[in-house]
């Protein structure tokens, strides 16, 4: 009998739906038992988000400052798992605060040490650098990253920016004005996530994960968009400057800090609507000379390897 644990956090339920589909074949197997552990912050983040809270979560999120979590069930902590599925979302180019807090907890050290981990990401579209941060956090608890599956909103960047904001502030995953596409990961992609069960099942039963990521890549578990790789990298540098500045202005919800959060919000809009298109033009102009590096980066970010 093999034991599998799905660790997840979700506000809308999207990520749990994805994770459940990924492990469907495992749950249907008589040789596998699947448990779920929902990460629960002591003070959970409201969903739908208030505008102020949404932007005020930025510094702690980006700087990976953990929040307090409720205790994990002792039944889960006492069991030895053969495989952990870590289903997480991205907040500000970083693993969400609840997931970051879990990965930094003593409980994660117990659950993940020497254990194969498959990350399952459900986000808008910018996850590359967040996954690099997760690789470090997994390494810190001596877990072994063996697979990565990424589901994103496939609409163009600016459309998904508009639709996700409406979703996050209304709590309703529906078409804005009846004109825009539905926000988030499409229902089709969510339902088709069951296809990832087969290669995972094979690796789990054989206790051999060597080819798992390659097998997952063959069925489109990860698609790397080189333009978004560039934007993500640049934005991380700028977000770092903003986060370090704002964190010095006070604690969440403090008046002085909220003033700076307001500036950051305006900057973010400017960056998305004016800087990103310029980066896109630069990307196109430098595409050919940088093709070698772009291909190398694509291969690396699709893999579960970690830069030394
Ligand atoms: C505060 C906040 C920041 C976010 N930042 C990003 C981001 O940087 N990149 C991205 O692709 N998605 C981002 N998202 C979208 C989430 O990754 C995720 O898709 C969405 O919140 C739905 O997840 P759920 O399963 O928790 O409902 C952000 C969401 C929130 C709430």
Structural summary, described in words:
The protein is α/β, with parallel strands linked by helices. The chain has two domains: 2-224, Flavodoxin domain (Rossmann fold); 229-297, no CATH class. It is built from 15 helices and seven strands. The chain has helices spanning 14-22, 24-28, 51-56, 58-62, 74-78, 97-103, 106-112, 128-140, 157-170, 187-192, 197-206, 212-218, 226-247, 255-285, 291-302; strands at residues 2-8, 32-38, 83-88, 90-91, 94-95, 116-122, 144-151. It has a five-stranded parallel beta sheet, sandwiched between helices. Strands 4-5 form a two-stranded antiparallel ribbon. Helix 13 (226-247) runs antiparallel to helix 14. The chain is globular. The mean pLDDT is 97. Bound molecules: flavin mononucleotide. Residues 10-12, 14-15, 54, 57, 89-93, 122-127, 164, 168, 184 line the site of flavin mononucleotide (FMN).
Descriptors for this entry?
binds flavin mononucleotide; two-stranded antiparallel sheet; 308 residues; five-stranded parallel sheet; Rossmann fold; 15 helices
């Amino acid at each position: 009998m093999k034991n599998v644990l799905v660790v997840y956090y979700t506000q809308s339920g999207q990520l749990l739906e994805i994770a459940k589909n990924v492990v469907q074949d495992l749950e249907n197997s008589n040789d596998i038992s699947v448990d779920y552990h929902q990460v629960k912050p002591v003070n959970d983040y409201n969903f739908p988000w208030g505008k102020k809270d949404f932007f005020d979560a930025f510094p702690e999120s980006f700087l990976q400052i953990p929040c307090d979590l409720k205790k994990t069930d002792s039944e889960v902590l006492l069991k030895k798992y053969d495989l952990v599925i870590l289903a997480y979302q991205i907040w500000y180019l970083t693993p969400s605060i609840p997931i970051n807090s879990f990965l930094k907890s003593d409980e994660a050290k117990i659950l993940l040490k020497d254990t194969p981990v498959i990350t399952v990401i459900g986000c808008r579209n910018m996850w590359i650098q967040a996954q690099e941060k997760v690789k470090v956090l997994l390494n810190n608890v001596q877990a072994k990253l063996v697979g990565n599956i990424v589901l994103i909103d496939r609409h163009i960047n600016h459309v998904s920016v508009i639709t996700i904001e409406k979703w996050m502030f209304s709590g309703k995953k529906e078409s804005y004005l009846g004109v825009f596409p539905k926000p988030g990961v499409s229902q089709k992609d969510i339902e088709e996530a069951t296809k990832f069960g087969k290669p995972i099942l094979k690796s789990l039963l054989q206790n051999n994960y060597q080819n798992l990521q390659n097998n997952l890549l063959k069925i489109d578990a990860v698609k790397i968009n080189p333009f978004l790789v560039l934007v993500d990298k640049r934005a991380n540098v700028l977000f770092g400057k903003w986060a370090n500045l704002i964190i010095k202005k006070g604690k969440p919800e403090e008046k002085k800090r909220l003033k700076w959060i307001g500036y950051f919000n305006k900057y973010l809009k400017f960056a998305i609507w004016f800087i990103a298109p310029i980066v896109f033009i630069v990307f196109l102009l430098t595409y050919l000379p940088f093709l070698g590096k772009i291909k190398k980066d694509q291969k690396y970010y699709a893999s579960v390897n970690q830069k030394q």
